[in-house]
Design goal:
By secondary structure, the protein is mainly alpha-helical. Helix content is 67%, strand content 0%. The protein has 20 helices and no strands. α14 packs antiparallel against α15, α15 runs parallel beside α17 and α17 runs antiparallel to α18. The longest helix has 22 residues. The protein is elongated. The chain starts with 15 loop residues before the first helix and ends in an 11-residue tail after the last helix.
């Protein structure tokens, strides 16, 4: 109960709660097999389900191999082959459910998940394998996940008699833990270990059980005292933990502190900023969105995602954010002058806002946004048509006609401008040209009358 893995059972939504449950079940089954209380053939199907739940469970294969060798020496191959047959049946069943598609077993990664020795341009790698920051991050993870393990091992290792206890148990836990520790030494955590604790916590449960076993077989004479000390410390730490995590402000400040540290590269920082901004969005604190993405752009001014998110943040502020949105788009296009995404998005924004101002009767601002839209994207018929409507409302029919015709030139299927041209002819009391203007281009002309 004192390990960080218990957090996964408290309303956790990712897959690691399932993985932890299967690991716990497999660990119990392994102990029962070693004690010869359960037939061996159940072990391999359980391990198959474990591997199917998460590929990192392949690292537990050495401990499974140890138990297989023990079974072969004691009872022969019968139970072993029976377990392999059941495992194969489980795998084929899962394979059939997946439509006999192997792709679910193999994910295509655009980046490696192993820390490199030399510095790379990978946006998810903040440090190299032998960097001091890496060792600090490992230490931070160990303190977070393994205070119980550290405490038990420190007080028992000097008194641990290797000859005592069941040798199979000792080697089983050793082969269970060692590959995992080595793997986590070289694995690259996308969000830094302080945020990706859930991956390690799932497998660190094994280390906790192993430490408890080694503590149990040690010759430490007074085991009650350290356990009472451990329980008391756990209660005190847990009280502080619940107080901190029950407070929204403290949790947010802690997350910001992680983001300010040297343990995140751009990719991880972006995901963390996104998570934080989604929290503010869902809690209605939209004014907090802008500072997050302003800071992101200060750090990574070349990343178009930052401009997109900053625009959306200003959008949540309503009309008061329109000018800031325009300034953000201008800054984005200055950074990426050939970005079609920036120009297209900016043009759509101008068209929408221009229409909003036009409907509100503010023709001056509407005209400004429509003209900007035609500059950004000359192939949109909407702004020409809307500018024509503004001139039409002023009875400047000749200028309105030019703009409606320009909209049709851009998109010959744009029916609204045909109707507007017809209305101009009707205003001039010339219905025949109106008919000839509309009929050749719009088959369902009666819908425009």
């Amino acid at each position: 109960l004192v390990g960080a893995h218990m957090q996964i059972f408290w309303g956790y939504l990712e897959i690691y709660s399932v993985v932890l449950l299967l690991i716990s079940s497999f660990l119990l089954l392994s102990v029962l097999v070693i004690q010869e209380k359960v037939r061996f053939y159940w072990l391999l199907p359980a391990y198959t389900l474990l591997v199917l739940s998460h590929f990192l469970n392949l690292l537990l294969g050495l401990s499974v191999l140890l138990l297989c060798l023990n079974e072969w020496r004691k009872n022969g191959p019968r139970q072993l082959f029976l377990g392999m047959g059941i495992s194969l049946l489980i795998f084929l069943s899962v394979f059939a459910i997946a439509g006999f598609d192997c792709s679910f077993l193999f994910h295509s990664f655009t980046r490696t998940h192993i820390l490199s020795i030399n510095k790379t341009i990978d946006e998810f790698q903040a440090y190299t394998l032998f960097s001091g920051y890496h060792f600090l991050d490992l230490l931070n993870l160990l303190i977070l996940l393994g205070p119980v393990v550290i405490f038990l091992l420190l007080i028992t290792m000097r008194r641990l008699v290797w000859k005592e206890g069941n040798n199979t148990f000792k080697w089983f836990f050793l082969l269970y833990m060692l590959p995992l520790f080595l793997a986590f030494f070289i694995i690259k955590f996308d969000l830094s270990m302080a945020k990706d604790w859930d991956i390690a916590a799932t497998f660190f449960w094994i280390a906790t059980v192993g430490a408890l076993y080694y503590f149990g077989i040690s010759t430490y004479s007074e085991k009650i005292k350290p356990l009472v000390l451990l329980l008391g410390t756990t209660v005190l730490v847990s009280i502080g933990w619940f107080q901190v995590n029950a407070n929204e402000e403290s949790s947010i400040n802690r997350m910001k502190g992680i983001m300010d540290g040297p343990f995140m590269q751009r990719g991880a920082y972006y995901l963390s900023a996104f998570d934080l901004s989604m929290h503010f969005f869902h809690t209605g604190k939209v004014e907090q969105l802008v500072p997050i993405w302003k800071k992101y752009l200060k750090l990574y001014p070349e990343d178009h995602r930052g401009y997109e998110k900053l625009v959306k943040s200003y959008w949540e502020l309503g009309e008061s954010g329109y000018d800031s949105i325009s300034a953000t788009y201008e800054r984005w296009m200055k950074m990426e002058p050939n970005s079609s995404d920036a120009k297209s998005s900016y043009a759509n924004f101008c068209l929408y806002v221009g229409s909003t101002f036009m409907n509100a009767g503010n023709q001056e601002k509407a005209t400004s946004y429509f003209q900007k839209c035609t500059t950004l994207n000359p192939n949109l018929p909407g702004p020409y048509n809307n500018l024509g409507l503004i001139y039409y409302s002023r009875n400047e029919f000749d200028e309105a006609m030019k703009l409606f015709q320009k909209a049709i030139q851009v998109n010959p299927q744009y029916a609204r401008s045909y109707k507007n041209i017809a209305d101009i002819h009707l205003q001039k009391e010339s219905k025949k040209p109106s008919k000839h203007t509309v009929m050749p281009h719009v088959p369902a002309v009666h819908t425009l009358n």
